[in-house]
Amino acid sequence: MGKRNSTKILIIGGVAGGATAAARIRRLDENAEITILEKGPYVSFANCGLPYFISRDIQRRSKLLLQTPEGFFSRYRVTVKINTEALEIKRNEKKVVVKTQHGEELLPYDRLILAQGGSPIVPQLPGITLERVFKLWTIPDMDRIHKYIEEKKPAKAVIAGGGFIGLEMAEALSARGIEVTLIELAPQVMISMDPEFSSMIKAGLEEKGIIVKTSVGLSSISDTTVKLSDGSELETDMVLLSIGVRPELTLAKSAGLEIGSNGGLIVDENMRTSDPDIYAAGDMVEVSHKVHGKKVRIPLAGPANRQGRIAGTNAIGGNMRYRGALGTSVVKLFERTAASTGLSEKAAAEAGYETGVSYVFKDNHVTYFPGGKPLALKIVFDKKTGRLLGGQAYGEDGVEKRIDVLATALHGNMTLEDLSELDLAYAPPYNSANDPVNMAAFIGLNDIMGYSPLKTPAQVLPEQNGKESLILDVRTVGEQAKAPLLDTLHIPADELRDRLGEIPEDKTIYIMSKDGFLGHTSLQILKAAGYKKIFNIAGGYSAAKWFDGWNFNN
To answer: In the predicted model, what is the mean pLDDT of residues 114-133?
Structure first.
C-alpha cells in the first residue's frame, strides 16, 4: 500500500506548547509533515529552570536544553527551523511568510499551530538599554546574566517585579553573594495571592537579607544607581526587569484572528482560533477558569504543555477538549515554599461568590514526632453551597502536597464535606491523623452550619475599638505576653468558665486565640452560657498578625 497524502503542520514557537504539539502529532500520525519555526537559537528548552542555573543549583547548562533541531528530526522526523521569524500569515493562501538568515520565504500549511508564548514587558525608561540591565526569558538572557556575574562580580542588584521570576531571581542572586533589593509597584509581592500570604513571603525574604520595597517602581536607571518612583535612589551594580509578561500577538492580530477582552487570543475548547485551520496554545491564549468558567489568561508551563498536546491532537483530526485551568502554582523561596490554586479570597469575592475562608496553622506532621515544620494553609469556599473555590499555603515542608490535594478537589468540584472525608495518608513522620486539609474543611463547615461562626481578621479590624463590640483574647498568659493587643479583654481559655461575669452580654464578641483552635472551644463555652453575638476570628493571632491594622506589640 502507498502512503496516504500527508498533512502539512506548521508550528510557530518551539518551547512548551509548540514542542509538545509536535511530539504529539508524530505519535498519532507517522506521515504528517511537521515543521517548527523558532525565532530564537534554541528549541524546547527548560525556561522554568533558568533561575536555578543562575543560582548554580543546576550546574550544567546542557541540562536545560531538552531537545535540539537535530534531535527533534532524529527522534520525531520534525523539521526545526531556528533563528526563523514568522512575519505574516496569509490565511487565504494558507502560507506563512518567514524571515531567515538567507532572506524571506513562503511556507505552506494545512494546519497552523501558534505557540509563541509571551514576551517580558520592558518599560521605556531612561537607562533601560544599559549593559547592566537584564531580563530573564531565554537561554541567551540567562547566559548574559551569568557571564556578567562571573566577569563583573556585582555586589548589589535591584530586581523590579515581585512575581515568580522576581522572587526566584532574588534567591538566585543572593545565592551568588549579591545584596538584593526587590521593588514592586503593587502594594504586595505575589499579587495572585491574598495579602496575608504576601506578607508571609515578604517576611521570609527579609529574614534572608532581601530588601523588599512595595508600592514603588522604577523611574530611571543610571550607571551606578536607580531612581524610584517615590524619588529615592538606590546604588546598584545590576538591574533585573521582571515586571510582567504580555502575550505575543503581533502575528495573530495582523492575521485578523479574534482577541479576547483579557488581551489573549481567543480559542475554543479544541484550542481552535477564529480560523478553523489555525490552533493556538500557551501563554498567548485565553482559556476558561475551572472554578467560575470565565475567560482568563494563565501563563504557566503546565497548562501550556497540556494545551499543546490537545492542539496537536485536534490539528490532525482529533476531538480532544481543554476544560480550563486553575492557575495552580508553586514557588521555592529559600527553605520555604509558597503555593496556591483556584481563586484567592479577593478573586472569589470579585467573581460574586459569598466567600468564606478558614485557616489552619500547624506543623506539617504530628508535633510529637521530631522535625515538624510550621505550615500555614488557607481555603476559600462558597458559603452558600460549601463548594471549594481555592487555597493557599506557605511553609517549609508539605506545602505543595496540600495544594495538589486542593487542586484535585477543585477539578472534581468538591465541597467542604467532601474535603472533610478525604482519606489521606497518615503516619507520624508525614502527617497528622486529620490532615490540615481535613482540618480546614472542618472549620469551614462549622462556619457554614453556624456552629462556630467565623469572621476574618480583615472583617474584624473596623470593629476593634467599636462601642458595640469587644475583642476577647483567650490566648494563654505566655502567648498574650509575647504579642499583646491593646483595648481587649484578656481571659485565658482555661479560665473562661470561671470569669464569664467579666464579659458583657450586650456586645458583639470577637474571640482571638493563638490560631483559631481555642477560639472555637471558647465560643462553645460562651454559647452554652447564653451569649448570642459571638464570632471566632479565623486563624486567630497567627492570621491577624499578617494584616495591616492589627497593632500587636511584638
So the answer is: 94
- Centre a 10 Å sphere on the Cβ of residue 295 and count the other Cβ atoms it contains: 16
pLDDT at 2: 38
Task: 402-408: list long-range contacts, CB under 8 Å, 24+ apart.
Answer: 402/339, 402/375, 402/377, 402/435, 402/436, 402/437, 403/328, 403/330, 403/339, 403/340, 403/341, 404/328, 405/435, 405/437, 406/341, 406/342, 406/379, 406/437, 407/326, 407/328, 407/341, 407/342
Angstrom distance (rounded) from CA 204 to CA 196: 12
Beta bridge partners of 340: 329, 392
Query: Which residue in this structure is represented by grid cell 517602581?
Result: 217
- Per domain, the residue ranges of the chain are 8-117+247-315, 133-243, 335-448, 454-544
Task: Decide if 133-243 and 335-448 have a common fold.
Answer: yes
Residue 277 cell numbers, joined: 485551520
In the CATH scheme, what is the homologous superfamily, with its name and number, of domain 335-448?
FAD/NAD(P)-binding domain (3.50.50.60)
In the CATH hierarchy, which top-level class contains the domain 454-544? alpha beta
CATH number for 133-243 (one of 3.40.50.200, 3.30.450.20, 3.40.1690.10, 3.50.50.60): it is 3.50.50.60
* Phi then psi dihedrals of residue 204, to 5 deg: -65, -40
Enter the C-alpha cell of residue 346: 479577593
Please provide the size of the chain in residues.
Answer: 554
β-pair type (211-214, 179-184): parallel
Percent of the chain with pLDDT over 70: 99
The CATH code of domain 8-117+247-315 reads 3.50.50.60
Quote the pTM value.
0.93
First to last CA, the chain: 82
Q: Which residue has the cell 452550619?
A: 449
| Separation of alpha carbons 405 and 411, rounded Å | 10
Catalytic status, residue 230: no
Task: Give the active site residue among 28, 46, 48, 424.
Answer: 48
Q: Are 260 and 247 in contact (CB under 8 A)?
A: no
Confidence at residue 478, expressed as pLDDT on a 0 to 100 scale: 95
Strands, DSSP E only, in 72-175? 78-81, 85-90, 95-100, 103-108, 111-114, 118-120, 133-135, 156-160
Q: What is the DSSP string of 200-239?
A: HHHHHHHHTT-EEEES--EEEE-SSEEEETTS-EEE-SEE
Reference 192, options 354, 346, 303, 401; nearest CA is 346
pLDDT value of residue 1: 33
